[in-house]
Structure formats: C-alpha cells, structure tokens
C-alpha cells in the first residue's frame, strides 16, 4: 500500500493542521501574517545552527524564532520605524544571514529546496513525537491564555480595564508562533508556513458567523489540505509544502462560493 | 476630606491622587484627584480634549506610566469605552461579545440585554448593529458582570432621545441595586445634574469639583460652558426640585 514514510508524513501533517487551525485564526484576527512570515524566514538561521551544533532542528528553530521575536519587540520600542519595515528588515536579513552561513558550512549537504518548501521524506519518528507532543503543549497553552488573548484581540482596552492582563497573553502567543513554526518547518517548508496558518483560517472566515465555528472550520480545512496535498504529492511527485498549500487554496476558492450564495440570499 | 476618607475607607473603589498622563511630551491631563465609592455616581464633564477619557483610563489602569497615584480596590470592573471598533475579520455575535472577559450564565446575559432593550439582537452579528444598538449591547455587557465599579465613557452616544433617558435611568437604578460605584463621562448636562452625586469638571486639569449644584454655581464652570450652561442650571434647579419631590412621593408609596 503506502510506503512507511508516507504514513509518517500523514500523521505529522495531521498533527500540524490541528495546531495551525486555531493559531491561524489568531494570525488573521490580529493581522500577524507578515509577523509569521518574518519568524518563518528566520527559521533558516535556526536550521543552520541546528546543523552546526548538531541540535534538533525544531529546538534550534524555536530558539532563533523566539529571539527574533524579542528583537522585533525591542526595535518597535526603540525606533520610530513602522512595524512592517521592521518586519521586512528582520525577515530578509535573517534569511540572508542564514543563506550566507549555509555557504560557509560546505561540509554539510543542504537540501535547500526541502527547507524552503518542505520534504515529506525527511519526517522521522522523532519529528512525529515533537509535532504531537509540542503541538499538544501549544494547544494547551493556547487554551489557558484563550480568555485574555481573545478579549484583547477584540478590544485591548476592554481586556486591560477588566483585569485580564493582555500583554502577558500577547507575549505568550508570540512564543506559540515561534513554536508552531519550529514544529511544522519540515512538513511545509519555511516559505509556506504562513500560508498554512492563514489560508485555512481565511477559508473558515468565509463560512463562519462566530469565532468557535471559524476555528473548527480552520482545523478541518487544514486537515483536508494536508491529506489532499500529501496524496497528490505522492501521486504527482510534487513537493509536499506547495501541494498542501495549493489544496488549501482550492478549499478557499470553494468557500468563496458560499459567500456569493449568502450575498445572493440577502438580496 | 481626610476624616471622610478614614471613616468610609471600605467603600472606596478607586482613588486618584494628583494623577496625570503624558503622551509624546504633552500632558493629556494632570493633577486629577477623585474618589469613586460604592453606590455613588461620579461624573466627569468638560470640553473635547479636556482629558475625560484619559482620566477614566488612568482610573482603570489602562495607562500605566502615570504621574501621581491611582489606587484601585476592586477587580470587578465593567467598562464601556468611548470608541470600540470591531474588526470584520473576526466573526462575533452579540452572545459571544457578552462573555468576552468573563463567563456569564445565559440567564444573566438575557437579563442584561433585556434591561437595555436589545434582547432580540442576541444572535446577531456585532458588525451588523447600528450605532445605538451597539451602544446598548456595550452597556449590557458591562452591567451583566455585576461589577463593583462601572466606568461609562459616554454610554448613550448614538442612542435615540427616549432611549437616552431610559438608559440614564437604568444606570441610576443599577448603581442603587448593585451598590456599585460609577464613573460616568457625559455631555448631557441635564443628566449630569440630576443623577450625579459628585461632578468633576475637567479642562486638562480639575477646573472645579463638588456636588452638581456647587459646580454649576462655580465661575470657572460658567466660563467653560458659557451662557447655555447657566440656563441649563436654572432649568435644572427648577426641574431638580420637581423631580426630587416626585421621587420622594414614589418612595413614600
């Protein structure tokens, strides 16, 4: 039937989709897609460090992404540059530095395409453990900070005034973003992780009228994208990340039909 | 003032002592001292940009780097901000919004929504409400928590005239029923005069403060609000006596 690697990729992808679903909704609601992109770009630097010091890739990426997030927060406080300029600065400079470092590490053969676009062949049993345990932890923490995070997403001042500590929730959420990028980099690749976060959530927005529904549809959309994407990757020998994202794009386009329908009904 | 404070300390919910807030080296407000106590309504009045909302945010702890002191003795707070914009990217029904900061039982949600006259909107999307409807939902959300301290920043803006009167009556009733302290920001001088225990008149600093009658007689108040306010005062004094005795009658019955 299936080769063993394919089952592993499927289990890994399903684990990732369970986590990107709810996190992706927050990325859309809080307008953090470019922020997610920046963390993902910096992941390349994390990968080079993992190879240099023989660390686990997910751990190294998690550390570097968290550091980049902290640097970003500091730069926002200390400079007068707009947020998107700072994000661009960090995204491209960390990507560039990562590529330069790869150039120096001539003794290691890098599968750059795999890093950028995901590689299902590369998923090991260890990766599965990291995805499912790490993913479980991310969801648990997200559940714990749900109230302050969601309330401050709707209105920061309401959350702050009514004693929910939104700043702490925001800081923790930033770390969760670094964590999801760390655990999903092998599956989707660093250039496409943000797509995995945003596209199912955007699809879910089109067909939901309340936040819980949007999260559930976002998870379902992510799961379908992973399953359809991976099967077509196997079938057409296409890279896994782009196949998954293309599948999610098709789901998004289908969800537009629902919007058209509801507009039609209103008229 | 200090004797007063000692004897009623338990009742104090929030206290500002010479508080001020600066943004980009510009004082938004400074030197504000006020106390909100259980069961009392304190109203902030003043022209646009006089620091009313800023004072409310200082009292709420939203602004942290402040001058002076703010002491808050309760965490059960209900807040109606002056401006709330709900993003379209977030699908949110009224019922979702009601439990935003605290999980509230369905009965309490229904009760609060019907008090402000918007029970029928419970399953509507927040983005589809009119300004007045949204304002009523905001107020319902704040009172449904049964807070000890209510901070209402122009809570009836955009509400129709009859609704406005009803909502101000509701606010007064709530302060009595819940015995909660209310910090109110209002443009409506009539309401301020008839429903308030203590008025603080702001213009970047505290212009004058005291009971509604004291403030209305104050020269600075007259300078700030002009002839019309004086007229309002005379109408008010007349109306006040009437309303007061009328209420007394009802209480006797």
Can you characterise this structure?
- The complex is a heterodimer of chains A (267) and B (253).
- Chain A has 267 residues and is mostly helical.
- Chain A has a single domain (4-191), classed as ABC transporter involved in vitamin B12 uptake, BtuC.
- Chain A contains twelve helices and no strands.
- Chain A is globular and about 55 Å long.
- Helix content of chain B is 43%, strand content 23%.
- Chain B has helices at 2-7, 52-60, 94-98, 106-115, 131-144, 161-177, 189-195, 212-217, 219-252; strands spanning 12-23, 26-37, 41-45, 67-72, 77-80, 149-153, 181-185, 198-202, 206-210.
- In chain B, the strands form two sheets. Chain B has a six-stranded mixed sheet, with helices on both faces.
- Classes of the chains: A mainly alpha (267), B alpha/beta (253).
- The A-B interface holds A 28-29, 31, 147, 150-151, 153-155, 157-164, 205, 208-211, 213-214 and B 57, 60-62, 75, 77-79, 81, 84, 86-87, 89-93, 96-97, 100-102, 125, 145, 151.
Number of contiguous helices of chain B: 9
The main sheet of chain B comes to: 6 strands, mixed
Rg of chain B, Å, rounded:
18 Å
- Low-confidence spans of chain B: 1-7, 234-253
Shape of chain A: globular
CATH second-level architecture of the domain at 74-181 in chain B: 3-Layer(aba) Sandwich
Given the helix and strand composition of chain A, which structural class is it? mainly alpha
Helix content of chain A: over 70%
Question: Helix- and strand-based class of chain B?
Answer: alpha/beta
Main interface: chain pair and counts: A-B, 24 and 25 residues
Oligomer: heterodimer
Task: Please name the fourth-level CATH homologous superfamily of chain A.
Answer: ABC transporter involved in vitamin B12 uptake, BtuC
* Rg of chain A: 19 Å
CATH architectural category of chain A: Orthogonal Bundle
Count of DSSP strands of chain A: 0
